[in-house]
Amino acid sequence: MTQFVLAVVLGTLFALGTFLVLRRDVVRVVWGVVIVTQAANVYLVTMGGLSGVAPIVPGHGEAVTATAVTDPLVQALVLTAIVISLGTTAFALVLTYRIYEEHGTIDLFELGRRDEGDGGNEGGTEDFARSVADGGERCTADDSENETRTTSENESGRSEASVGG
Amino acid sequence: MYPGTPFDAPLSALLASLSSVGDALAIPLAATGTGAGTTAATSAPEAAVVLALVALPFLGAALTPFVYRLLGERTAYFAASVALACLALVAMLYGSEGLIEIPWIPALGVSLAFYVDGLSLLISFLASGVGVLILAYSGGYMHDEPGKTRYYATLLAFMGSMLGVALAADLVALFVFWELTSVSSFLLIGHYRETDSGRYAARKSLLITVAGGLFMLVAFLLLNTVSARALGEPTFLLIGAPDSLIANTDAVRTTLRETGLFVPVLALIGVGAAAKSAQVPLHIWLPNAMEAPTPVSAFLHSATMVKAGVYLVGRFRPLLVGEEWTLAFAVLGLLTMTVTAMLAVGATDIKELLAYSTASHLGLIIAGFAFASVLGAETGAFHILNHALFKAALFLVAGIVSHEAGTRVISELGGLRRDLPVTAAITAVAALSMAGLPPFNGFYSKELLFETTYEAAHAAGGLWWVFPVVAVFGSVFTFLYSIRFLWLFVGEKPDSLGEVHSPPLVMLVPPAVLALLVVAVSAVPQFFVDNLVGSVVASAVPGEAHGFEVYIPTELSPPVLMSVITIAAGIALSPVYDRLHDGVRYLSSVRSISPNWYYDAGIEVFQSIVSTGLVARAQNGLLRTYAVWVLAAVSALALGGYVAGGVSLPTFSGTSLSLPIIIVLGVAVVGAVAVAVAPSHIAGVLTLSILGFMVALFYLLASAPDLALTQLTVETLVLVVFLLVLDRLPTFYGKISTVRAARDAVLAGVVGITVFTTVLVSTAATPEEPIYTFFVERAPLPDGGGGGNVVNVILVDFRAFDTMGEISVVAMAALSVMTLIAMRERGETQ
């Protein structure tokens, strides 16, 4: 059975997910991936046909005919996928947190530029970590946006200075 | 079978070998030694012996790192003994002929097929025999050099690949081994990784030889397509079976002509062979390849690997020989022979001289195979052997000279005979053979070439007379540089040259063995022709008599006159060698006729414009760039596939969905839109949860209670994780510029349309027999799973390993999270 409604819904969800993946804010990129994952799962279930009752059959030890129930195979696949998506989402979020700790920003554009400008990520990271340690303070989560930006800029300025020295 | 084709005789042997393959394969490889000694004339080869022959070097290469730990410097002798074992296996195969086939990719008709005959045995003899000498010599030469494990392992792997090239009867297998030789050559040329010249040379050889191999691959695929028309079904088998290409030469050739593919196939194979065998103008990688340690140059770049192209020409000769063949390869071969002989005169370094000389002699072999007469094949076949012997010896001499005298510059060397008397004797034999002086073996094969070109010109007349003239012209230069090389040992020793030590015995014996072989072939050429070379000719010229005769001429025939002219002109021009040298150097410095200049300019364009531009556009470190390329490419491929496949969209036929499902999906979309336009992280996460819970409701309504339960749990957990992490992140959200948003919206739209189309097309199809009925029917049974909930039974019973994989992923994610959060103060940041 051709699923027009689901085609429209899934197309829209994928489009929205794609749009979010292209943003410069890492958190939004994670959202985009989550939306695409959800849509992919729904698509898999849709491929099962969306007809019939839940695949729970009566009678232990008795053979049954398979016509009445909906496709259990796609459900097993999606169940696995949901659990794995929990793992990957959690990992992506913690990675985001760590990126912020290391680089002082979650702006992908700035991260990409820094990668280029410093001629290598490692050196920049080390210098940055050292300068954080020297400063003796860590940007805390309660900082407002402006403060965080300023601190981060100061620190990257310092890190450049330490490279120069 | 066609009457009159050469395969009538060995056919019975061949069929016997086919039927025995199955039995022989059952024999474990360890038992190969016991099966020896059964070789009779033209018996079928034993499958176990052939397989062991190809596998042994690779096995040796794999073991080299462990052996090196035990033996250290003496790994050379381990490697040499592996080569010796291979040589013994080749000797066991001597005299046999036939096919050994193991299925590899049956669906595509690709098999791992090996064919043993005269040509493959000669190349195998060279690969393993010269291999023994080279590996032993390396023990002395590579003393105190870096990277010995890598060196010996790669050399052994190369030897295995070369044996594979020689024996492969299947075109795909041939291609794989062919490229393996290119890769090992790349590694060996770049042995001194730190030097710029080493890296340049390695890259150059890889680019040229591998690119040439790709041309050859296209030819193979074309032949495969053509064989489908000519033989009824496509085959990759080149030789050795009734349904192989060469066994059906006439049919294949007719079809090639009908489809107009004869010349393209010929040209593509020609490019492959020319790139590998350093034919003009693709010869430029060979002189640079001299960056490799000298044993490598002697082994790969004179005796074996560069012979692969020549081998290819010899192998395809029965299939493609004709007017176009003669014209293409005679021009290619004689042009190379002459041009590179002149370049050799212009060389300033002894290895450079030998490199150009190698290209020149390969040209001679190619030219020999070019001519349709039997004489041509005899020339090529005999010179493969002769060249390998004297050139490998000369390279090893060059290694001794550079090792002991400390320089390879020709003008700084001279009078070495006093310090290196044995080496001088070896050089005298090898260099005079290279010059083509009677009674050395080089004379016989050169005489055959003269005779071939003369006969061809005599028969065809007209412009064909150019061939003998060019052959003589090129040979004069060959004579000149051969004598120049010999002159390193005579005359006065320059004062600048310091003390020259005697080489260690291990470096002296291998070239001496080669020189003795040169003497042996020179003394009794007919013996070697009858026992080794004759059968090679049979491989290249089907249906002709095997044996041919070589002797020192006693009367003045035209070819003899050509030899006399060559030697006389060579002697006459010797006094002006230096002027010729300068002249060639001047000519080769002219940019517009220098292939090197074109190569360097091309590489420069690629490096500075193409790759820089490509990296800036595709690999610039921004996540969105990568995402754009991947998403756009996938969408374009999917949509393009639908268009190419002529998929039509189903017409709108209403919906069977119930109202609750439609409402739930509508709310989900609204939630997703809200995520996309969320003004803050918190708002986004909460609306993302709306989407997640709506999906859970959808699962419930779609009769998937297990999914709904899992989704609810996971969604709750994700919400908690998000809130916990967001608490520690800055409230950053980049401003979106309108232009960028519009561009992203276009891509998002394309992805959306791709998904929309895919869902429509895929849901419109209804499979005849769904797979799931198997699970539903078996799940409640005691031996199937014994549970009523089919999804659970699938997860924990039918597909339990998948579930274990899923749990491992979650465990790995948990460990990574732990590492990232808890171990921040350890590791690289300290």
Outline the structure in words:
The complex is a heterodimer of chains A (165) and B (830). With 165 residues, chain A is mainly α. Chain A is built from six helices and no strands. Chain A folds into two domains: 2-51 and 71-117, Helix Hairpins (Orthogonal Bundle), CATH 1.10.287.3510; 122-153 and 160-164, no CATH class. The longest helix of chain A has 32 residues, at 72-103. Chain A is elongated. Chain B has helices at 8-26, 47-71, 75-93, 118-141, 148-167, 171-189, 196-231, 249-258, 262-276, 285-288, 294-303, 307-320, 323-345, 350-370, 374-405, 421-435, 441-460, 466-486, 505-523, 525-540, 558-573, 577-588, 595-618, 623-644, 659-676, 681-701, 705-726, 738-764, 772-778, 790-798, 800-822; strands at residues 98-105, 110-116. Chain B has a two-stranded antiparallel sheet with strand order 1-2. In chain B, helix 4 packs antiparallel against helix 19 and helix 24 (623-644) packs parallel to helix 28. Chain B is elongated, with a radius of gyration of 34 Å. The model of chain B is unreliable at 1-41 (pLDDT under 50). Classes of the chains: A mainly alpha (165), B mainly alpha (830). The interface between A and B is large, with 108 and 109 residues.
Q: Give me the Rg of chain B, rounded.
A: 34 Å
How many extended strands of chain B?
2
Major β-sheet profile of chain A: none
Mean pLDDT of chain A: 73
Sheet/helix structural class of chain A: mainly alpha
Total number of strands of chain A = 0
- Oligomeric state of the chains present here: heterodimer
Per the principal axes of the C-alpha atoms, what is the gross shape of chain A?
A: elongated
List segments of chain B where confidence is low: pLDDT < 50 over at least 5 consecutive residues. Answer: 1-41
Helical proportion of chain B? over 70%
Q: Could you tell me which chain pair has the largest interface and how many residues each side has?
A: A-B, 108 and 109 residues
How do the SSEs of chain A run, as a string of H and E? HHHHHH
